Amino acid sequence: MLLIFEQFLNGLQIGLLLFLLAAGLTLVFGIMDMVNLAHGSLYMMGAYFAAVFTEWTGSFFLGAALALPAGALLGIAVEMIALRTLYTRDHLDQVLATFGLILFFNELARLMFGAGGMTIQTPDWLQGQILILPGLPYPSYRFLIILVGLLCAAFLYVLVQRTRLGMLIRAGASNREMVGALGINIKQLFTLVFGLGSALAALAGLMAGPVTTVQIGMGDNILILALVVIVIGGIGSLPGAFIAALAIGIIDTMGRAFLPNILGSFLSPSEASTLATALSSMLIYILMAAVLVLRPAGLFPAPGR
Amino acid sequence: MRSAFKTFALLSTALMAVPFMAGDAAAQAAKKIKIGFVTTLSGPNAAYGRDMQNAFNLALDHLGKKMGGVPVEVIYEDDEQKPEVGKQKTEKLLQRDKVDFVAGYIWSNVLLASYKPVLDADTFLISTNAGPSQLAGEGCSPYFFAASWQNDQNHMAVGELLNQKGIKKLYMVAPNYAAGVDGTNGVKSLFKGQVIGQDMTKWPDQLDFSGEISKIRAAKPEAVYVFFPGRAGVQFFQQYSQAGLKKDIPVYSAFTIDAVTLKLQKDLVLDTYLTSTWGTDLPYAANTKFVTDYKKKYNETPAFYGAQSYDAANLIASAVAATKGNLKDKKAVGAALKAAKFDSVRGPFKFGNNNFPIQNVYQQEAYKVSDTEYDLRTVSTVLTAHTDPHAAKCKM
Predict the structure, then answer these.
(1) Are A205 and A71 in contact (CB under 8 A)?
(2) Does B194 touch chain A (CB under 8 A)?
(3) Could you list the residue ranges that cross the membrane (chain A) (predicted)?
(4) CA B146, B148, B149, B155: dihedral to nearest 10 degrees?
């Protein structure tokens, strides 16, 4: 029972990390209609920034506080230099251009930070465990990820649903010409949204860094998962991304944790572990296929799209 | 309204498309020995490819860039840690560059995808890392040599080491690919206790082992065996320590801690148990020369990946010298390779009937040299002049 609860927390933690990445992608992709494959690169650069700043300042939190604006600024620079001209172009052009950016950033990271990867030092008290329930110590850093993810989700909800900026973002998503006609500088708005999306990517990167080490190409694999999240959740829908990210995190973890035992009850142990690995990594794609068959626009399609 | 599926299909196709950046190796004049070397030079595990490349180049320096008096040219190719790319690059080396030898390969799955065209072309393939069981037993070939080990060997030493330490209940975690399967089977073949749990993780994409670590905690084993080469090994130890298990359940590993990962693992891997066929401190003249000159030239400590590549270069050189550069006589070249008349950095080294090494496997441990520097040292010999268990099935 404790194990199930612990695995649930693990799933929640992976899901929330995924949400941080998918939220930024949803803002940019769903709302600005811009396919940005380089979102994973912003995630990677965020992690590298955090590693470098943490080393400079000697404090994880100062490092994180510096890495977030750095990530946002990098995103804004990328938007202004490379992506701005692509909004009106075909999705295929955007895919091509941002794929080029992935290669560019991977090479840039190699030149700037070396091929070996970096670690982010967290304070000692984050290296320990918190006793959540009797007999269930949980890594305190993973607990922090859950906390940050939930806070971030709440912040985004308030921002998008309750503020003027959020209203403009939603309006810009439905009909950008109309927002422009109302006298809003849509260009500036999009740059701002892109910066926000990049900051979220950087946050995801810096939170993931201490668990997974900072490496070149770390954003490439997780980006595919983030894309699965927004497809399942519904393109452009933040609540959809939230629920889909949690669902994927939990299903993935639970599958990995319990499928071998379930299959092991009627298969030989080695067959069971091999089959379970294959099955559990397929689970989320099976889920995606099922969602697409039943609800082609995703579980919670954004209104107006 | 664009359907979500169409968008996803477009995106995932774009993402999975492999960037084609094949290096143009110009066709060269004859009277030259050409060696094609396939390894991982991009992506998160590029550091290992570089370690191999550095060591291979160092060996050529020591040989005066000649083998048996004939100049040598090496063409390095990047497999990006992907089997399909490795195969493609291998075929390019054979067909376009017409190499005399193919060497390299870190990953068993990449080697298994690539070896067939080489052997079918009657070209010698010298693996400098991967040693899959598929090529050691019934699938052995007179054209395939492993300058490294058979995958099971180091893991069998882990099994034996567990016996020596009196471990009765073991939990195993390894990646779900050829080398992971060989590894877990290797441990089990000698381990006398009970395996109370085993997880095979998705390779190479899985970065987060929280699920597996929670299961380890719940299973309460006396020891954990892990096999996660490259960056995955850094992540495992990091997360294992964060879960608070490091002090309670000791970790035994093979190929998971090396000179490259140690720079990131640091304290995380102190007081853990590992096995290896090579160490910087093995007291052989060839080894001392290799380690000293490697450090001098590259300002880094070599890893076992490099040591095996260094051996591979000397192995090829010994065969070329023995046949006086007449590479047309395949039988003679094969016999000379098998004789392995070179000074291995591992000291005692010879090939078994299946062209995999018969060699010692040592226990090693990580230790702190100074506040910032870590190294590995050899503790004891676990298996002596060890032959892999698949050799008996090889009819050659």
Answers:
(1) yes
(2) no
(3) 12-30, 37-54, 60-83, 95-120, 140-160, 189-210, 222-251, 272-294
(4) -150
Q: Which helix (H) or strand (E) holds A294?
A: helix A269-294
Report chain B's mean pLDDT, rounded to a whole number. Answer: 91
Q: How far is CA A113 from the centre of its chain?
A: 23
* Residue A284 and residue A155 in contact, taking contact as beta carbons nearer than 8 Å: no
Continuous segment of H or E residues that includes residue B77 = strand B70-78
Sort out which chain A residues have CB atoms less than 8 A from B176's CB and list them: 273-274, 277-278
Confidence of residue B34 (pLDDT cuts 50, 70, 90): very high
In which element (H, E) is residue B224 found? strand B223-226
Rounded CA gap, A250 and A38, in Å?
26
Q: Using a CB–CB cutoff of 8 Å, tell me whether B26 touches chain A.
A: no
Lowest mean pLDDT among A258-267, B126-135, B306-315: A258-267
What span, in angstroms and rounded, lies between the C-alpha atoms of B180 and B198? 12
- DSSP class of residue A118 equals B
Q: Within 13 Å of residue B171, how many CA atoms lie on the same side as its CB?
A: 20
Residue in A256, A262, A270 to test binding to B, most B beta-carbons within 10 Å = A256
Comparing CA positions, the residue from A69, A67, A57, A34 lying closest to residue A205 is A67
Of the partner residues B1, B12, B207, the one whose CB lies closest to the CB of residue A305: B1
With cut-offs at 50, 70 and 90, classify the pLDDT of residue A293.
very high
Helices (H), chain B: 4-16, 46-62, 83-95, 108-120, 152-164, 178-190, 210-219, 231-242, 259-265, 285-298, 304-322, 330-339
Asked if the Cβ–Cβ distance from A14 to B263 is below 8 Å, we say no
pLDDT top residue among B19 and B189 = B189
Which residues contact residue A165 at a Cβ distance below 8 angstroms, ignoring those fewer than 6 apart?
Answer: A159, A192
Chain A partners within 8 Å of B209 (Cβ): none
Which residue, among B11, B18, B189, B268, would best test binding to A if mutated, counting the most A CBs under 10 Å from its CB?
A: B11
Contact A14 B208 (CB under 8 A): yes
Spatial contact of B318 and B132, defined as CB atoms under 8 Å apart: no
3-state class (DSSP) for residue B135: helix
- List, for residues B164-177, the tens digit of each pLDDT value: 999 999 999 999 88
Strand partners, B226: B173, B253
The reported pTM is 0.85
What tens digit of pLDDT does each residue of A29-88 get?
877 788 899 999 999 999 999 999 999 999 999 999 999 999 999 999 999 999 988 888
Chain A contact present for B200, CB below 8 A: yes
Q: How far is CA A134 from CA A2, A127, A131, A168, B244, in A?
A: 9, 20, 7, 48, 15
